[in-house]
């Protein structure tokens, strides 16, 4: 979880001053400020209370939390492919990925997670990026029975919209691609891409706007990823045989090298191996009532994306699926 933030607020009242120690962990402690000597408040009790409060405040502020945002890239991640093509920036708080004719590159989390949320801010390849793929995904790394949740950013010819493809694998069954044209230039600045994963659904977000929902419909015999922990991965690679206009647009290597940038890595979830009770703990924030379904505002945004920016949906591809896949009937 994010580190607990504490702050001290000075309150004034006609005959009382109090310090309120407030934190997002819902601790609220009021300590009376020393009154005039004529007051009968026990100053020794006040002193003891104040010392305890200062200790508690320091503890809440400084105590390490296992799922807090990493201060640097290497705290939670490791380079898995072509370390010469990954450069740390800003003291390791950001990284640059490079693709050239010699190699792409990639990285992965040091741990695996079962449920939670993962997000990153990414600035994609500018200009002519046709034939390139920048991928951000979760994967159980279990071969034929793998679970996987994919963001794949498909490069474009200059002036054309960037597409993001999402895909879901559950118990080894995938081929559930959907594509959305982004409604902004993702190479001009950083944007936040997130995956929320709980027992009820998987939601893909772009800047907190949901672009895909995959519901848990196990009761209807539809696989859902819930048993296998997944690592967090990212790669930058060449895929000009399919990435842009079905492979019609090839990489222009005269524009190489190609760069993508990442920062603000945030993983919040149940680490595996870890406490066995974590994944079934209803107090995990991502399992809360607020995250069991899209609220009305999020649902409107979701419909807006799908009506105005979706360019491919396997659910409506009658060539591939003459019979509509059952999960496509679930809605949101």
UniProtKB/TrEMBL annotation:
Catalyzes xyloglucan endohydrolysis (XEH) and/or endotransglycosylation (XET). Cleaves and religates xyloglucan polymers, an essential constituent of the primary cell wall, and thereby participates in cell wall construction of growing tissues. This is Xyloglucan endotransglucosylase/hydrolase. It is found in: Secreted, Cell wall; Secreted, Extracellular space, Apoplast. InterPro entries: Beta-glucanase-like, Beta-glucanase/XTH, ConA-like_dom_sf, GH16_AS, XET_C, XTH. It comes from the Eukaryota. The chain crosses the membrane at residues 50-68. Glycans are attached at residue 156. PROSITE patterns: GH16_1 (PS01034), GH16_2 (PS51762). It comes from Centaurea solstitialis (yellow star-thistle). CDD domains: GH16_XET. Residues 28-262 form the GH16 domain. Contains at least one intrachain disulfide bond essential for its enzymatic activity. The active site is at 148 (nucleophile), 152 (proton donor). The lineage of its organism: Eukaryota, Viridiplantae, Streptophyta, Embryophyta, Tracheophyta. Gene3D superfamilies: 2.60.120.200. GO terms for biological process: cell wall biogenesis; cell wall organization; xyloglucan metabolic process. Keywords: Apoplast, Cell wall, Cell wall biogenesis/degradation, Disulfide bond, Glycoprotein, Glycosidase, Hydrolase, Membrane, Secreted, Transferase, Transmembrane, Transmembrane helix. Its main location: secreted. One of its GO terms (cellular component) is apoplast. GO terms for molecular function: hydrolase activity, hydrolyzing O-glycosyl compounds; xyloglucan:xyloglucosyl transferase activity. Belongs to the glycosyl hydrolase 16 family. Its EC number is 2.4.1.207.
């Amino acid at each position: 979880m994010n580190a607990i933030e504490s702050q001290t607020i000075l309150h004034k009242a006609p005959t009382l001053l109090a310090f309120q120690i407030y934190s997002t962990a819902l601790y609220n402690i009021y300590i009376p400020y020393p009154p005039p000597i004529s007051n009968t408040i026990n100053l020794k009790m006040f002193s003891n209370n104040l010392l305890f409060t200062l200790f508690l405040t320091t503890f809440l502020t400084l105590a390490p939390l296992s799922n807090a945002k990493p201060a640097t890239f290497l705290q939670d991640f490791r380079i898995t492919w072509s370390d010469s093509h990954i450069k740390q920036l800003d003291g390791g708080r950001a990284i640059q990925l490079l693709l050239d004719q010699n190699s792409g590159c990639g990285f992965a989390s040091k741990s695996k997670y079962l449920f939670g949320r993962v997000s990153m801010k990414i600035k994609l390849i500018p200009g002519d990026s046709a034939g390139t793929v920048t991928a951000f995904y979760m994967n159980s790394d279990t071969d034929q029975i793998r679970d996987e949740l994919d963001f794949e950013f498909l490069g474009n010819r200059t002036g054309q919209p960037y597409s993001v493809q999402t895909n879901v694998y559950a118990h080894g069954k995938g081929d559930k691609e959907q594509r959305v044209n982004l409604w902004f230039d993702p190479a001009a600045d950083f944007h936040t891409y997130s995956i929320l994963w709980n027992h009820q659904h998987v939601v893909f977000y772009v800047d907190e706007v949901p672009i895909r929902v995959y519901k848990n419909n196990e009761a209807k015999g539809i696989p859902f990823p819930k048993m296998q922990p997944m690592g967090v991965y990212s790669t930058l690679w060449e895929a000009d045989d399919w990435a842009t206009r079905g492979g019609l647009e090839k990489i222009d290597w005269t524009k190489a090298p190609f760069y993508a940038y990442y920062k603000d890595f945030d993983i919040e979830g149940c680490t595996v191996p870890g406490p066995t009770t974590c994944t079934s703990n209803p107090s995990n924030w991502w399992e809360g009532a607020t995250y069991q379904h899209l609220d009305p505002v999020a649902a409107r945004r979701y419909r807006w994306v799908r009506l105005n920016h979706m360019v491919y949906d396997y659910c409506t591809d009658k060539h591939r699926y003459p019979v509509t896949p059952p999960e496509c009937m679930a809605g949101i």
